[in-house]
Predict the 3D structure of the following.
Amino acid sequence: MATYAVTLQKWIDPTQRKGRSETKILNVPAPDGRAAMQIAEADGWSVTKAVPVLEKDKKVRQPFPTKPLIVMCTSLASMLDAQIPLPKALEFYLARVTKADQRMALKSVAVAVQRGDDNHKAFAATGRFDSTFIGLVKAGTMASNLSAALRALARRMKTNVEFVGKLRKALLTPCGILAFLWCLLIYSMTVLVPNVEDMLNSMHAPPDGFSAFVFGFSHFYQVVYMPTTIVAFTLLLACGLSRSFRTGVLKLIISRWKLLRQIIMGFRQLTFIGTFEMLLSNNIPIADALDTCARTLKNTPMEKELLLAKEKLALGMNLGEAIRKYTSFDPQLSHMIEVGEKASNLAEQLLLLRDLYEEETTQRIEFFTGLVGLVSKVATVSIIAGIYIGTYLPIVMAGVKMMGA
């Protein structure tokens, strides 16, 4: 979808033909100039022109914020259940949206759907929604149950937001304390401990074994603390600015940490199970359902795995066997799918699996956040104790030696 620069004009005093006016320009994604003018039109503002924006002048589109997206999915699902068409439901929802960029994106979707575009294509054209959202909207439309798809999206996003919030709460305070303690350690190892060592040397008093170890560590620390601080700051800055670097770090952590890997896999498997069950319950062919599920898991290893399972299914292989041999899903999932195929109640087995994985994922999240909080607190207390003992014990020992001298 192209982007148009739409010029809007508003008269400050409409009673005067030659009065002053305000002008503003909005970048609007739309299929053509007329649609862009229709989307940008607002109360009190008149559209004067719409000009295509050059590719080099286009701004990077930010993803739709998660919390407003959860509210939007829940609201739209309720209105769709009341037999309100999607364009009209979006118009009703726009009455509560205050931010201009969000209003523009949703109004663009409403206009596109009203023109006859597919629901998922209208959302995808804005560039504000991720592949999981687009895939589930497509699945809900195919199954003639878009409200259920939107509710599933809201439930998944809410669980994800709660997990991130708990993790941030468990890490934020200890990380701030550790940063302060790192600065305190720099001061103690570069100022306090060297002063104690100089005091002992001036009195020609040999240090005891523990003090000698602390002095040796102080010499080592004075050499490495500056490069270490620069490297740590650079890594934090790269994680904050580079999405690819952040993704690489996350993949490395997931590969090394089984519990976190199980949580991520739980989210992905829940997405697959919920989408697949919704499609099968509405008589969508299994091959088409697998293709749609692959789209909801775009940019993950499971996307290619599901497409490969679809190919094997076309060659005559059973679904459960294809899932077991050619995907990285849990053996329990493939076993339950095989049971559902044999008993001709696959949709019921998928519902049982969904409830099971939701419970397991919730328990793992609780354990993970509790473990991270405990480890961070233990590390904080240990560093405080190390700084206190390493800094002040040599001073006490030096006082004893000075009194003896």
